[in-house]
Amino acid sequence: MTPEKILADAQRRIDDLAPALYIGGGFVPSTSAETIEVTNPGTGARLGVAANGTAADVDAAVSAARTALPAWARTTPGARAEALFRFADVVDEHAELLAALEALNVGKSYAYATYEIPLISDCFRFMAGAARTAQAPAPGQYVAGQLSYIRREPVGVIGAITPWNFPLLMAAWKIAPALAAGNTMVLKPSVLTPLSTLVLAGLATGVLPDGVLNVVTGAGATVGRAMSHHDGIDMMALTGGVGSGRQVAAGAATTVKRVHLELGGKAPVVVFPDADLDLLVQTLIAVGYGNAGQDCGAATRVICHEDVRDRLLEALTAAARQLRSGNAAAGEEFELGPLISGAHRSRVAAMVDQARQDGARVVLGGEMPAGPGFFYPATILADVAPGTEMAREEVFGPVISVETFAAEAEALSKANDVEYGLAASVWTRDQARALRFTEELAFGSVWVNSHLSFASEMPWNGFGKSGYGRDNSAYALDDYTRTKHVMLPIGTPDGS
Ligand code: NAD
């Protein structure tokens, strides 16, 4: 099928979706008749509607998750793995539909969205396998005559809240480890992008037992808040901004539940004169402007040696000028999609204006285009001063800022001069220098001569204000389990 046909089918699927929640293994109406208008950011036009859920809907979803919990928690890891493998297969079978939904709602090109689906099914497959490999200290007599062993148990009902930039991938990063560990879940997608998550949940019918996965759409301030404060939820997991993280942690504190936070980032890209500039520019184009820069690990804060700055600016500007914008709904091929909303675009534009006032030089872009959709051009800012908003705060847009350094220690101190600690990269052919940076950069993922490459086997997590949860890898599975120490008297053969 052509992308145009796949996208048209996905739009029909959206048109057929009555505003509903996914609770207890099926779609049910919200307790409120209110709906959320969902927009195509490429045109600004209405894409569809979703239910504007309420605290009462959260109660119903928690009740379904609690009912499903004992049986799911008692299944063997092998049986859970089987279900998750089947779910991964179902995701792959519906790859075109899911990619099209993601493209229509986030505004990314269909081609870009298709790369995300295998990452989603791989996440389910990895967690299915990892579920069968729980680790703990060996059982033994750590106190003479007493046998100790560890049980890895699910935490209970997980409340998960996801952002709009990668709605399905971020949902998978929560659902897969939580369910693999034997928990059940209530998930709230972003109010801006609820559609693909609802469709994904619908695909779970008959694959996962009813009530294991529930989805309530609605606003953070109502549904998200009700979840964080809910007595029937044992742990909250959020991917989102720092402000939402604070609110979720504060709500969770009222019932002392566990919290798992994946928050914002401000990834430095440290460039030495011996870096492979062609590869660097390619990478900046792919993961600085990819998804319109709306990526928590986006390579958008270049800190380059003063000897290489002009060459880099020239090559990056030439490459960034080639980026095409387009409307995903029309099946167009493009590299630079729109921002998610008008409000977000205004925020990005205001940050660029502030950078100008703080002395930055606009090398490319920086002007809001006329026309439909929430587009913002590929922008490059040079001479960004340390300590300014542009150097320290997350833009979440297609804006690459460039700072310079003269000495290695200065590069390191500039790179670490942020409150976030999610992702960073260093670009040099000098391996010893690269290793020094991997030790000193205070970020949860550090790449040498690449940026934003993932593996399901490796953790994704932040330091500092980027939060304290681990997605992906066996560490994520650990985060969704609790350890119980069991001790029983077995005596000794001589009766002592
Ligand atoms: P956001 O914080 O606005 O929203 C995230 C989710 O939190 C949404 O579902 C929202 O409805 C909900 N929410 C908002 N207020 C809430 C509250 N008071 N209580 C409970 N839930 C609430 O974030 P966003 O704009 O959707 O996404 C962008 C942010 O997410 C960026 O800061 C980005 O860096 C971050 N992000 C982080 C990662 C990561 O892995 N660390 C990945 C993707 C995005």
TrEMBL record:
InterPro entries named among the record's database cross-references: Ald_DH/histidinol_DH, Ald_DH_C, Ald_DH_CS_CYS, Ald_DH_CS_GLU, Ald_DH_N, Aldehyde_DH_dom
Stored SUPFAM superfamilies: ALDH-like
PROSITE patterns assigned to the protein according to its UniProt record, in alphabetical order: ALDEHYDE_DEHYDR_CYS, ALDEHYDE_DEHYDR_GLU
Superkingdom, natural source: Bacteria
Domain (Aldehyde dehydrogenase): residue spans on this chain: 27-486
Residue intervals passing through the bilayer: none
Pfam families: Aldedh
Keywords: Oxidoreductase
Keyword Lyase: no
Keyword Lipoprotein: no
Similarity comment: family membership: Belongs to the aldehyde dehydrogenase family.
Protein's recorded name: Aldehyde dehydrogenase family protein
